[in-house]
Structure formats: C-alpha cells, structure tokens
Amino acid sequence: MSGVAGLVGSHLADALIEAGHDVVGCDNLTGGYLDNVAGQVEFHECDVVDLESMVKITRGCELVYHCAATAYEGLSVFSPHFVTKNIVQASVSLITAAISNGAGRFVFCSSMARYGTQDRVPFTEDMMPQPQDPYGIAKYSVELLLRNLCQVHGMEYVVVVPHNIIGPRQKYDDPYRSVASIMINLMLQSRQPIIYGDGTQKRCFSFVQDVVDPLVKVGTSAGLSGEIINLGPDDDFITINELAAKIAQIIEFDLDPLYVSARPQEVHLANCSADKARALLDYAPRVDLESGLRSMVGYIQAKGVKPFEYQAELEITTSMTPRTWKDRLF
Q1: CATH code of the domain occupying 7-238+245-326
Q2: pLDDT tens for each residue of the chain, 330 residues long
Q3: Which of 54, 86, 296, 300 is most exposed, with minimal Cβ within 10 Å?
Q4: Secondary structure of residue 255 in the 3-state scheme
Q5: Beta carbons of 202 and 237 less than 8 angstroms apart
Q6: Exposed, middle or buried by CB within 10 Å (0-12, 13-18, 19+), for 320?
C-alpha cells in the first residue's frame, strides 16, 4: 500500500489488519504523519517514484492499493512538474512493480478532478472525463495507463474515486489541500479562514471510515475488475461558506473570513453520485458532516495546532498565482 501514513492509507491499513491481512506500506511522509502508521505494518519510508524500491516492497503482495498522491489540485496549475511527477511517474512505478511481481489486483485511488466541469451534477461514472487542471489530467492519465497495462499483462484493477475525505489523522498543516483541516487549524489559532472567490463553490465531504469500508470490499470482492466507482456521499451538498460556518459554530469562533481571488480552473460545482457504490458495495455512509467535523476538531485540539509547512515550491509565479501561497498567508 502506498501512502500508508496518510489519512486514507493509515485507516485502510488498520481495517485490513483487523480483517486478518498482512500489510506492507510505504510513505515519504510529505502527506502524512509517521504516528499514523500501525505497529503491525511492515513500513518502508520511501518514495513511490522510485521503481527499484517499489519492486522490492511489492514482492509477494497479492493486492496493491495506491493511496499516495500529492493531491494538490489548485497548486497543479502553478507547480505542474512537481504534481504530475508525483501522480503519473509515481503511479507507473507502482503499477510496473505490481505487474512484475505478479500481484492479482491493483486498486487505484483516482480523484473527482477527473470529471472537471460537467453539464450536470452529481457526476456519474459513465460521464466522459473533462479534467481542467494538471492534477485532474494526471489522475485520468494514470487510469488510462493502468487499464492499458492491466489488459496487456492480465492484472485485475479497480479505479475508485474518493473525494473530499475528512477525519482524524488528516495532515492539517498543509496549505495546499484539505479545506476543512486548513480552516480548523486556523480557527483554533484564533485566525480567520481564507476563502477563494466568493465561497459559493459547492462540495460534499466524506468521513474517512465511510470510504475505508468500501475500499476493503473493492480489494477483496470478486467481479469488480475494470470498474470505476465513486466513493463518497451525494447528499449534504454545501458551499465553502457554509462549511466555514459549520466549523466556526463547532469551535465557537467569531467568523469573519478573508476572501481572496478565485483560483484559476477551480470547478464550481463538484459532487459525485454514489448510486454505483450503493449497488456494488452496499455503500451507506454512517457519519454525517457535522459529526465528522467534530471528530477532526477534537483530533487537532488533542495533537495541537501547527504552523503551515510550504513543502512544495511554486514553479510558475504570475499575477494569477494565489496570494495564499505566493505571500504565505496561511
């Protein structure tokens, strides 16, 4: 499993261990925390881009989950080399290693960014992808590469599309992704959240365990090879303004957001249908948004707030580059 120190990877590893599986995991710790990794995991601190390392650690693995990603959709417009290297090249390394070692199935965590802007929401899996930023293009490219290589070499594969996942263990000192954790970290420091555009962009948010449970089924259930499956709720579709208000209410924070210019290429309405997941995986979310946000607030309070770490360098700086990153406003 790649990304085993991250939000999804660490919880997924726990679930697989509880189900009786042996788990080998890797992470370079740019998107996760080492203390997220269970002691029962055979852990390797390495980068998925490194093919030699991937061949070594996937030896003997029957099932491979690819959860690692620099999920920097907005940043990808301004750091396209960094982001696409860590999506496309990293994914090809792991796919190649899995095939060469005879793995039976490969589960790829794609992104809602694959859909781009569509004529309607929620997005369904039969829609033609129209990614509109380098991150989304990279994720969709990996899907095509995975399908091609698996068809040639006979490895089963499933593409899952988890989206806007929240929950304990999420990296909350990253200024480039995960709007809910950024807002919580700021408000707990008595700082106002920063909102791009007018805040009317709409999203749904998935609690991590409601994604992990179907992910286990995706890896272990027969008859799913070649499927693309959205994972996440399609109700409680809310604006970023409403999200900020919910978090402020939980924290009892006097909300007065700072609004900055909209990010280029940001999709305004992004929501995925869960109908296919319901049909194939008995998908049924158990944690509502407010409960999920409360668990995140508790987690960050317990660990302690952190300053934001600007780990990625801006490769393109123009008048369109968000001030949040150019001037390090977080």
Answers
A1: 3.40.50.720
A2: 999 999 999 999 999 999 999 999 999 999 999 999 999 999 999 999 999 999 999 999 999 999 999 999 999 999 999 999 999 999 999 999 999 999 999 999 999 999 999 999 999 999 999 999 999 999 999 999 999 999 999 999 999 999 999 999 999 999 999 999 999 999 999 999 999 999 999 999 999 999 999 999 999 999 999 999 999 999 989 999 999 999 999 999 999 999 999 999 999 999 999 999 999 999 999 999 999 999 999 999 999 999 999 999 999 999 999 999 999 999
A3: 300
A4: coil
A5: yes
A6: middle
DSSP secondary structure, 98-164, as one string: HHHTT-SEEEEE--GGGT-S-SSSSB-TTSPP---SHHHHHHHHHHHHHHHHHHHHT-EEEEEEE-S
Contacts of 261 (CB under 8 A, 6+ apart): 196, 197, 322, 323
Q: What is the DSSP string of 33-48?
A: -GGGS-TTSEEEE--T
Residue at token pair 């601190």: 45
* Token output for 266: 């940001």
